[in-house]
Write a structure and sequence with these properties.
Layout: E1 5-13, E2 19-28, E3 33-37, H1 44-51, E4 59-64, E5 67-68, H2 73-78, E6 80-83, H3 95-105, H4 112-121, H5 137-149, E7 155-159, H6 167-182, E8 186-190, H7 194-200, E9 203-208, E10 211-217, H8 218-225, E11 228-234, E12 250-252, E13 258-263, H9 265-269, H10 272-281, E14 286-293, H11 296-306
Parallel strand pairs: 3-8, 3-9, 6-7, 7-8
Antiparallel strand pairs: 1-2, 1-4, 4-5, 9-10, 11-13, 11-14, 12-13
Helix pairs in contact: 3-5
Protein name: ABC transporter ATP-binding protein
Family: Belongs to the ABC transporter superfamily.
GO molecular function, one term: ATP binding
Length: about 300
């Protein structure tokens, strides 16, 4: 099946000479959730803006549903919903009129039932007659999401959608995302809350300095790059690392009270029994053990640090 979004050799250099994107290649499948991670200034928003037709690329091509985003702007833009970072709303308009207008702006016929369902999903129904200037920042964020969903897009971009919002909205937002996924909507999100990407994304992309460092299935990425740590709390502290452990990636804790074994992959994991046997043979006893697996945040920090 052809990807719903296809990006080839995408580059963007602004008038001041800043190169925001450098030859980005990316395919996004219909119905998947892709989390795009990167520090501030990495190129995330520029990438989204080009796909949404808000910024023209300096080089390369973007196809949405097989259509070029520059030549077929209206057609591709109608397929896309965008929740921007900025709270850009008409302060003197009501919630109902704002969301309804957004639907009509994309050429969709009036559908009050659809608008009502969206507002109820986002806990905005009771605020439908309120002017936007009367709403809190979190409520205004909900209105942006409602506007993006009003024309029933096939692709939804969420650019830092939960930054600075309350826990309840964040929870509701991901419930909406899950329902949209079931309906076949493709979702691309940028976020600073890496635990969110770890929880809901199918694939994870890491971008830094305008370059896409990798895009991988989340589970495969954590299996391939995620490290595990076995910590053995010793019955008696040691003054030095025991002999015979040179072939293992074992370190002695600073206080001498624990041995720490870092391993990666099933092959190294299989050596744990051998390591424990070696310690037993030397009469080294431990009173407790625990394991820890690196998180997506650990992997992200490591990848970005390598390219800093």
């Amino acid at each position: 099946m052809a990807p719903i979004v296809s990006i080839r050799n995408l580059a963007k250099t602004y008038g001041n000479g800043f190169q925001a994107l450098k030859g980005v290649n990316l395919d996004i499948g219909k119905g998947e959730i892709l989390a795009l991670l990167g520090p501030n200034g990495a190129g995330k928003t520029t990438l989204i803006s080009i796909v949404c037709g808000l910024v023209n690329p300096s080089d390369g091509q973007v196809l949405v549903g097989g259509h070029d985003v520059v030549r077929d702007f209206r057609r591709t833009r109608a397929m896309i919903g965008l929740v921007p970072q900025e709270l850009t709303t008409d302060q003197f308009e009501t919630v109902w009129n704002t969301v309804t207008f957004s639907r009509g702006l994309h050429g969709k016929k009036a559908d009050p039932a659809r608008i009502e369902a969206i507002l109820r999903d986002l806990s905005l129904w009771e605020k439908r007659e309120n002017m936007l200037r009367e709403l809190s920042g979190g409520m205004k964020r909900r209105v942006l999401i409602a506007k993006a969903l009003a024309h029933e897009p096939e692709i939804l971009f969420l650019d830092e959608p939960t930054a600075g919002v309350d826990v309840n909205l964040r929870r509701e937002m991901w419930q909406v995302v899950e329902r949209l996924r079931k309906d076949g909507v493709t979702i691309i999100l940028t976020t600073h809350y890496i635990e969110e990407a770890e929880e809901i994304a199918d694939r994870v992309g890491v971008i830094n300095g305008g370059e896409l460092l990798l895009v991988e299935d989340k589970t495969a990425l954590m299996r391939k790059l995620g490290r595990k740590e076995l910590r053995l709390e010793l019955a008696e502290p040691l003054g030095a690392l025991p002999p015979g452990l040179d072939s293992y990636n074992v370190a002695l804790a600073e206080d001498g009270g624990a041995l720490i074994y870092e391993y990666q992959g099933e092959a190294e994991q299989g050596r744990i029994a051998t390591l424990l046997g070696s310690l037993a043979a030397q009469g080294i006893e431990f009173r407790d053990l625990s394991t820890r697996q690196s998180s997506l945040e650990d992997i992200f920090v490591e990848l970005v640090g390598q390219r800093a």
